[in-house]
Design a protein that fits this description.
By secondary structure, this protein is α/β, with parallel strands linked by helices. Helix content is about 35%, strand content about 25%. It has 11 helices and 16 strands. Strands 2, 3, 4, 5, 10, 14, 15 and 16 form an 8-stranded mixed β-sheet that branches. The protein starts with a helix and ends with a strand. The N terminus is likely disordered.
């Protein structure tokens, strides 16, 4: 009964917004409500959505090794900072990755002892994080957004700011190519007696600026199929630019599914990259099971790189998660202080899962920029 009530309440909220919007709601807002409506959205209702028994699997659920390697990376950055480095995470979910990183640092690098700042707008997810990280006490602090981060560090922060599978869950605009008129149309959502359906809209009529739309060269426009789908996420690019602009010394790091400019127009992506996930299964039924399935779209890494470089950061690494983690493993082996746990059989198995092309190694990409 409880689940049925939550689902019907969320659907009613969406229907009311569609009515208030004149019958069509921009998909970005639909996705925002489906994922983040307070107490009702997909990410607001259970900390157990992630893992073997949940809807999808992340690097954090493989074991502590992922966090240990990030913690070791911070230890190598620390001597380059002009003061004790801070550690910042956005999108911490239940706080498990932060727990793994801080546990490693306290055991193997106790002299660093960073303060952890969690950028978390959701009160319910903050409660999950408080429970997970309770033993660290006042070393954990919370910020609701990047504006608060800027106020907390008016001259910029020094340290490591990281996010794991955050940006792919930012609400996106879904677009459809109109070949006859060689233009993009925005996708909206309308209500039907039994659910929801798609409806096309003019981008400028719903506030999508021309410069935000994907560029389609004339040669591509001649062959791009009518109805070809794509997504844009100006919010993610703006977020990355703001996080990068506040970095005084250190690194900005993200792990996520994503593509570069040219990859979004591959023939096999005629339906775009927007997908639903439930019980480890991918679905293209985006408008079904509202609040009961994850919605995600690939990150546009070209835009992120350019946004960071545009505010003065240097791209230190861009490539697969496998490549990044191999570099981190090699750094532990060559660490003259040997401040890393033994590479026993359990850690080797975790490393293989994190780096194997058929598991997590190839699908995830890593962007690391620094100043």
């Amino acid at each position: 009964m409880r689940e049925s009530f939550l689902e019907s309440a969320l659907i009613q909220i969406i229907r009311e917004e569609i009515q208030s919007a004149g019958g069509v709601l921009l998909f970005q807002r639909f996705m925002e409500l489906a994922l983040y409506a307070p107490e009702l959205g997909y990410y607001e209702r259970s900390a157990g959505r992630v893992g073997v028994d949940g809807d999808f699997y992340t690097s954090v659920r493989v074991g502590a090794l992922f966090g240990e390697l990030i913690g070791h990376h911070l230890s190598q950055l620390a001597p380059r900072c002009d003061k004790v480095p801070v550690l910042i995470e956005a999108g911490a979910h239940d706080g498990q990755l932060a727990l793994d990183i801080l546990t490693y640092l306290d055991l193997w690098q106790p002299e660093i002892r960073p303060t952890l700042w969690l950028v978390e707008p959701s009160p319910i997810r903050r409660q999950w994080q408080e429970q997970t990280l309770s033993r660290f006490g006042e070393r954990i602090r919370w910020l609701s957004d990047l504006d608060q981060l800027e106020r907390a560090f008016p001259t910029g922060y020094s340290g490591l700011f990281y996010a794991n599978e955050l940006l792919d869950a930012f609400p996106v605009h879904r677009l459809m190519w109109d070949r006859k008129n060689t233009r993009w149309l925005a996708m909206g959502v309308t209500a039907t007696p039994t659910g929801f359906d798609w409806k096309t809209l003019s981008p400028d009529a719903v506030g999508i600026h021309f410069e935000e739309l994907p560029t389609v060269p004339p040669a591509l426009a001649e062959v791009l199929p009518d109805g070809f789908n794509a997504e844009i996420c100006p919010q993610a690019t703006t977020w990355w630019r703001q996080a990068a602009g506040s970095l005084k010394q250190g690194r900005l790091l993200t792990f996520d599914y994503g593509l570069d400019d040219e990859e979004f127009f591959a023939p096999q992506r005629c339906e775009g990259t927007l997908r639903a996930y439930s019980r480890h299964r991918i679905s293209g039924k985006i408008l079904d099971n509202i609040g009961e399935q994850d919605l995600t779209a690939h990150v546009h890494f070209t835009e992120l790189r350019e946004a960071g470089e545009g505010v003065g950061l240097t791209t230190q690494f861009y490539g697969s998660q496998r490549q990044w983690l191999v570099k981190r493993m090699e750094a532990t082996l060559h660490d003259p202080n040997r401040r890393f746990p033994e590479w026993n059989s359990a850690r080797v198995r975790q490393f293989q899962t994190l780096t194997h092309p058929e598991h997590l190694g190839r699908g995830f990409r890593v962007l690391e920029q620094g100043r």
